[in-house]
Amino acid sequence: MRLVCSICEEKYNIEEDIINCPRCKAPLIFEYDLDEYSKNFIDHEVKSIWRYNILPKEKDLISLGEGNTYLHKSKSLSEELGYEGELFLKDESTNPTGSFVDRGIAVAVSHAANKNYHTVATVSPGNIGASLAAYASKAGLNSLIYTPLNIESGKLYQILMYNGQVYPVQDIERGIEEALDRADKDTYLILPNNPYYLEGVKTIAYEISEDLNWDSPDMVIVPMGNGGLIFSVWKGFLELKKLGFIDRLPKMVGVQFRGASPIVDRLTGEVSEAMSIAAPELSIPNPLNMNLALTAIKDSGGYGIRVEYQDAVNALRLLSEKEGLFVELAAASTIPAVKHILDHTMPKKIVCILTGHGLKDPATIRELTRSIRERLGLDSGERRVIGRTKIGILRAIKDGNSYGYAIWKYLGRKGITIKLPTVYQHLSELERMGLIKTISKSGLKRQTTIYGLTTRGRDALRYLG
After folding, report:
1. Helix H or strand E segment including 410
2. How many Cβ atoms sit within 10 Å of the Cβ of residue 461?
3. Which pTM was predicted?
4. How far apart are CA 452 and CA 17, in angstroms?
5. Fewer C-beta within 10 Å: the chain N or C terminus?
6. CATH of 377-464 given 1.10.1040.50, 1.10.10.10, 3.40.50.720, 3.40.50.1470
């Protein structure tokens, strides 16, 4: 077992305990003498990722029961999509902290704990931060979480409950700089390109193939943020093929939102559009694993797909209503990608990786269920909270858009599509909450209400991003 640079292919001994290649700064990848594992691949008594022996195992493993997630075979959703093949949904929301990253964090934190680090640190818009805080608590380590201001509230609450030390930063790049400055002999940095983290994530491929009786699907559809997930899953399938467990390899299909698609942009050669603020987990302007993701897509004969934000929102509802699966927006982005694929080809077997739980993004769910809650009388003033739309309105007012129509246009440019009367409803609620105030009413033919932020509103916006 050794580490190999993903660019220059320089080999390193794992005892050197390095995170990336000292020569070219590229991610390092674990490489194994696979012949030694062909007869000792699985420990059938274990029900977590640690059942697989092709992992960098430490003397003392830190585990919360990650992995062993369910592979659903879809029926109703397949019919809704008009798909005649087999559609499988790998539900990673059942991991301990609600997302696939628990697999990678379990391996990375196990390494840190066994190397006697006292603190682990990361830079994350949500899932990795929540997971690291949880596993650090299990290991008795401190956790430092650098997170952007637009972190989804569900993930922030998780981090705080797991006793993570939160450090808000303006953007991911700034957070990485600060985290690198903190990394030393006592603090171990776990970013999405950490080789131990990537190794844990590859177990998704192992489980998919095992659940398919050691077969592989024609296509695996994967949401892409930093790009590590799609590469790790591809690496898992490659190892299974070399071991002789599977006879064929799937095409890897990477999904990103239009307006937040740097990996797909690089793949297609198209000029990138403005970044989206709608889904922080997928809105990564400079993915740490860009080259790894491109390698997985190209080597597998796959491709990248851009999907519309609203299509993912619609798919989120479909997954809940048709399959009983409540997932986050990034996970739902795989479903419109299936539609795109079916417009061009009809593979026999597709697997969508559903990356995380829907409760991690309460703002999106709140908007989706608003009309139902109002009809049932469950949206009283006492229950109102500051969701994504209200944060957008506060930000619009801060940026000088001080009246209803201007705010509505601003929200549209930011990917928040609502009707103009709904904007005024939100404004009324924000005023009752004491977050905005009426400054003046002006206009010749009709009155136009001008709004401004209160001190409380400015404080709320500074905290919530």
Report:
1. helix 404-413
2. 20
3. 0.80
4. 53
5. N
6. 1.10.10.10
- Neighbouring CB atoms inside 10 A of 31's CB total 12
- Please tell me what DSSP assigns to residue 43: -
CB-CB contact of 229 with 159 (8 Å): no
Distance of alpha carbon 429 from alpha carbon 215, whole angstroms: 54
- Tokens (6 digits) for 218: 């024609």
Give the full edge-to-edge strand order of the sheet including 219-223. Answer: 71-73, 86-91, 349-354, 219-223, 251-257, 303-307
Sheet holding 28-31: strands in order across? 11-12, 2-5, 28-31
Question: SS3 letters for 257-323?
Answer: ECCECHHHHHHHCCCCCCCCCCCCCCCCCCCCCHHHHHHHHHHHCCEEEEECHHHHHHHHHHHHHHH
* Contact predicate 169/108, CB 8 Å: no
Handedness of CA 407, 126, 145, 181 (dihedral sign): negative
Q: Mind giving me the DSSP string for 334-396? A: HHHHHHHHHTT---SEEEEEE-BBGGG-HHHHHHHTHHHHHHTT---GGG----HHHHHHHHH
Question: What are 122-178's pLDDT values in tens digits?
Answer: 988 889 999 999 999 999 999 999 988 777 788 888 999 999 999 888 777 777 777
Place of tokens 């929200």: 411
Candidates 3.10.105.10, 3.40.50.1260, 3.40.640.10, 3.40.50.1100; correct CATH number of 101-196?
3.40.50.1100
Domain ranges of the chain: 101-196, 377-464
Q: Give tens-digit pLDDT for 304-314.
A: 999 998 899 89
Instruction: Please count the helices (runs of H) and the strands (runs of E) in the chain.
Output: 19, 15
Instruction: Tell me which amino acid residue 359 is.
Output: L
What is the per-residue pLDDT across 322-364, written as a single tens digit (0 to 9) for each? 999 999 999 999 999 999 999 999 999 999 999 999 988 777 7
